[in-house]
Amino acid sequence: MTTPEPDDGPVTFLNIFEIPREDVGAFRAGWVERIRLVEGAPGFRGAHLLEALSDDERFQLVNVTQWDSRAAQEAATGGPQLRASVADARADQRQRVTPNPGFYRVAATATPDRP
């Protein structure tokens, strides 16, 4: 068995956000706009924005996007329109956020036994 190369796909991009609860709504709206900029890109498989159930959670939002490869994600997110949108979000005081991004692949899987 060979170990896959770091860029072999598929990959999942996670960005776990520390964000004040009162900023979540503005961030969510911007996330929807930014996802629309990449959803038709080659290699894009899907996206979710997960929101904490409790106001007390350290990480209120988790961005999860699936891609055919890391190269596909980087190509799709490297365009000027998306970069400008991200820069605008970072400058927006209604979205005080600390991102924690990274690429991941499935390391193990568990599924329920079903008859």
UniProtKB/TrEMBL annotation:
Residue span(s) of domain ABM: 12-86
One GO molecular-function entry: monooxygenase activity
SUPFAM superfamilies: Dimeric alpha+beta barrel
Pfam families, alphabetized: ABM
Region (Disordered): 74-102
Keywords tagged on the record: Monooxygenase, Oxidoreductase
Gene3D superfamilies: 3.30.70.100
Protein name: Antibiotic biosynthesis monooxygenase
Source organism (scientific name): Actinomycetospora endophytica
Lineage start: Bacteria, Bacillati, Actinomycetota, Actinomycetes, Pseudonocardiales
